[in-house]
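Inverse folding, one chain.
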């Protein structure tokens, strides 16, 4: 297992819609490395494009969040080719993002979602999800569709962090030029 570099705001891979996963055979190492990276960065979710990989895949672990995931393994998730097929309600919550370090913004999202995805074996699931897991899924699905939390807030909120965004973007573009393509 190895740590991967987290891609930051400004890198073009974060603004494109990620490719559908068709070959599930070579994903285990990538997923394990993504979990190691997410834990090292103190995150609760990580999309493949956040580590420079153009695949519709993300992971979530909310086991360290108080009150979430009572049973063994219930809070650790791997979602492949996921799509939100319905949503209801609304809630506000302060979100951070590993691709926009040290920035936190209040984001409004649906409270409940119906989520369709595949697991590591390619089996299709459809679940109704709410609470923190719903919010984390929506955040990561946004990443896979090229959307950031800054796209979900007012212009005033975005303007308040403009200086930080410009700095992150400049550094990120320099790193993007040096990144090698991921191959399964």
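Residues assigned per position:
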């Amino acid at each position: 297992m190895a740590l991967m570099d987290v891609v930051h705001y400004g890198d073009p891979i974060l603004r494109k819609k990620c490719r559908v996963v068709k070959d599930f055979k070579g994903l285990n190492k990538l997923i394990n490395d993504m979990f190691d990276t997410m834990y090292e960065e103190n995150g609760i979710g990580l999309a493949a494009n956040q580590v420079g990989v153009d695949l519709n895949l993300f992971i979530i672990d909310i086991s360290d969040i108080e009150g979430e995931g009572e049973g063994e393994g219930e809070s650790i998730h791997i979602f492949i080719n996921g799509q939100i097929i319905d949503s209801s309600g609304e809630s506000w919550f302060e979100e951070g993002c590993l691709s926009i370090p040290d920035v936190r913004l209040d984001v409004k999202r649906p409270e409940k979602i119906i989520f369709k995805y595949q697991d590591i074996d390619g089996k299709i699931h459809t679940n109704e999800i709410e609470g923190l897991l719903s919010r984390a899924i929506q955040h990561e699905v946004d990443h896979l569709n090229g959307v950031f939390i800054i796209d979900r807030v007012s212009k005033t909120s975005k303007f308040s962090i403009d200086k930080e965004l410009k700095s992150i973007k400049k550094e990120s573009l320099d790193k993007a030029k040096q990144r090698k393509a991921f191959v399964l």
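Strands lie at 45-47, 57-61, 76-88, 91-97, 100-109, 112-118, 124-130. Confidence is low (pLDDT under 50) at residues 68-72.
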